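Hello again,

I reread your note about wanting to compare the complex against the isolated chains. To keep things tidy I'm splitting this into two emails, and this first one only covers the full assembly. Below are the input lines as submitted, including protein chains and any nucleic acid or small-molecule components. They are followed by the predicted structure of everything together. The single-chain runs will come separately.
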Amino acid sequence: MTVARFWRETLRRYNLGASKCPECQAVFFPPRSVCPNCSVHRKSLTKMEACQLSGRGVVYSYTTVHEAADGFEMQVPYVLALVKMAEGPMLTGQIVDVDPKDIREGLPVRATFRRLRADGDDGVIHYGYKFALENGAAAKK
Amino acid sequence: MRAEGVGIVSYGTYVPRYRITPDEIGRVWGVDGVAMGKNLNIHSKSVPSPDEDTITISTEALRVAMTRGGIDPRDIGAVYVGSESHPYAVKPTATIVAQAIGATPNLTAADFEFACKAGTAAIQVCMGLVASGMIKYGVAIGSDTSQGAPGDALEYSASAGGGAFILGKDPIIAKINATQSYTTDTPDFWRREGQRYPSHGGRFTGEPAYFRHVTECGKGIMASEGTTPADYQHVVFHQPNGKFPQRAGKLLGFNEDQMRYGMVTPWIGNTYSGAALIGLANVLDHAKPSERILVVGYGSGAGSDAFDLTVTDNITNFDRQTGTPVQHDLDHGIPINYSIYAKFRGKIRLSGE
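Full-complex prediction:
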């Protein structure tokens, strides 16, 4: 990933920057400039409001990754989940600090700030959101 | 040194979830780890995940502080991050942390480095900026993911964690009555540019370094404030292990009861720049109005920063539950063995590296 491409996405990756339709109140992540739900698209044009997701959500579905993507070799096996956010959008993200056998649908999660990957030993480090189980459930002895 | 009316507005901490015991580390190196742990007074130490570093730890700690204090990010005028494990040699940790809490662009930011006391140095700078009226709120963070070389004595203690403090004038949960420092050129611990692991002066790290600076700085601030150990309900020292702060406390005349909440290293290890700040956070987690706290940090190289604080009535209604209270991190963790620890800490080289 180029430096500029990632930099343009920091608002979303760091702060879960989203957008909200003033007509139907639907929230979109990544943010959209037009609401696809309303039949009167033109009404939402230029009126979409910037907002931020709370970071709270629940596990909608998940899978355990054993064949790591580049840069994730040290973390296998890791959990990748679809997270239904409190505001409505569905996000894909890694669930950290959890044994894959402890994960299940419906578990509450919160966004956490983690290192996503690095461009080699001398390149830029990319940061962004992942998810952790709410209430530190994974940390219980 | 005084900064009239300045105090702690909010605070937050973050400690990675994984833990390893001295017994497990000793098993690999043919050392009696149980005895080592006993000598150091360390039961376990925290270990960061492969995707955690000083930037992620600092951000998580500060986000807790922002939520607890209900702080508008636009009111933050300065973000300073003290650490000896900044992920970049050139590219400030503070810029990423400030962006991640939404405080950019109208603020000043910088990274501090002074071994384990860079975070307390950041508090002092924020005190000056707030007292002068240059900024409304200043953020001081002490955070580290330091490592000891495999098999070195430091490997039994070096851990990861961080504390974030928001300094301001109103509303404060603890007033900083005074601060004082004690600094000399003492080569007890260092890491040369480009070196992966730090070096230390063995026994030299004790008497002329940690104990001299901590006790002289502690005595100095009590002399200038006209106080004695009996005036403080709580005391926090920098804690490279669980033994040094106990002895420093005894040398200065404090009892175990006063050190009870300020001691966190025995359960999470030495979080370096985070150590004294997480200790202070645990004290604030338990503190009552009007209680007085003495904090004496220490950084190799060497120097100590001391703070005399008084808890205000605002602590009663302050949100101390958002995020993870320090006691939870002391009581809970995910145990791992040395193999996983070595993998997480990058001690295993993959093919092609």
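For quick reference: Chain A touches chain B through 22 residues (CB under 8 Å).

B.
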